[in-house]
Amino acid sequence: MSGSAGTKHAESSMFPSYEGRVMCGYQGWFRAEGDGSGEGWVHYGTNRKFGPANLHLDLWPDISEYTRTYPTAFTNADGATMRVFSSWDASTLDLHFQWLKEYGIDGVFMQRFFGVTRSENSRRKGRVILGHALEASKKHGRAIAVMYDLSGLRANGEDCSSIIQDWKELVDELKITSQGTNQTYLYHRGKPLVTIWGLGFPDRPYNIRNIGIEKVIDFLKNDPEYGGCSVMLGVPLHFRDLKVDTSSDAYLHQLMTSADVIMPWMVGRFTTLQHDEKLRYESQIKADLAWCIERKLDYAPCVYPGFSWYNLSKTEFGGRHPLNQIPRQKGKFYWNQISTAVASSAKMLYVAMFDEMDEGTAIFKCSNQPPPESQFIDYEGLPSDHYLWLTGKARQMLRREIPLTKEIPTRETAKPVTPTKS
């Protein structure tokens, strides 16, 4: 009998554990003018506009397989109007989960930013895309889980307990954890896994001592109706030593002891993974694992394909940053992290991110022919599914279905990824 027995959650799932799985972060935050959301252009551009003067992206999506797309102010080299997708459309989520299945990737953590939880209206609107994702996950047999991101929590001591009401509504309205024995919500240690991301970062405006986070964690773990959950915490890279990118307040460690899984944020913390960087990354993973094992915590290292927020940083994050700040090296940077984590005995992986075009960390299909009138990165002439394919190979290697290799696989030397149901 699971730890969720007696709650509103089903006692089992198609995905009973995070162990042996590769899960991706999923933003789902792109909106287009005319998509029915009434929000205009969101995350494509600034101030609900989308053009060369207010560009938000460093990657451009490959839209060749989408059933619904939207015209933009950009043109291609031949002068034709370029189009993009909207995350608001159910067909978009269906296609993305189809890709997860096709390339053998386990599933996604759906990002749920704190602002969504604040009001009844925002929570209801926030269930639209999550609802589409839940349906797509069932159709394609992929795992889904909720990740609450505390970004947006205000500096004036705002309490984060609206997460409690939001989780109740997801359980009651979407039935997100009660889809029956074949449900696709990701469980861990026999219980639904819920993530809270954004604890211990010193650049955040909130103090984790006065946001009510202990109450939220206790609710998720112990509430007789909605609790019985496992909890993953997203923390900074240097969480063990409480230094560098981590607040020095040891209260973070107190919170972590009440969790089940720890996921340190590694995006931007490692660069090209040349020899010294690879050794530092390996040392980090091994020391983190030992620290977590000693405290009976599971550990999900974060891997990412590269990083670039040149266009986004024109208006945010302290001014303009260089284009292609952390190069992908045709997948070598990504594979170095994956193979090092697996060789270091990691049992699960968190991929940042599935659809993050703003910061150039997306693994889904992006174009090698972005609009010529602005500056973008691309996939260096590789097929648009290159990173989906590599992520599928990562899962196979994590599960020992293929040998561990530090050499990046190629399609000429590797067997095709076979879609699986689990």
Mean pLDDT: 95
Q: Indicate the low-confidence ranges by residue numbers.
A: none
Biggest beta sheet summary: 10 strands, mixed
Distance between the termini: 21 Å
Our estimate of the beta-strand percent is: 5-15%
Question: How would you describe the overall organization of this protein?
Answer:
The structure is a single chain. It contains eight helices and twelve strands. The protein has 422 residues and is α/β, with parallel strands linked by helices. The strands form two sheets. Strands 1, 4, 5, 6, 7, 8, 9, 10, 11 and 12 form a ten-stranded mixed β-sheet that branches. A two-stranded antiparallel ribbon has the order 2-3. Helix 7 links the parallel strand 11 and strand 12. Helix 1 packs parallel to helix 2, helix 2 packs across helix 3 and helix 7 runs parallel beside helix 8. The radius of gyration is 20 Å and the shape is globular. The chain starts with 21 loop residues before the first strand and ends in a 24-residue tail after the last helix. 49% of the residues are buried. The model has no long low-confidence stretch (mean pLDDT 95).
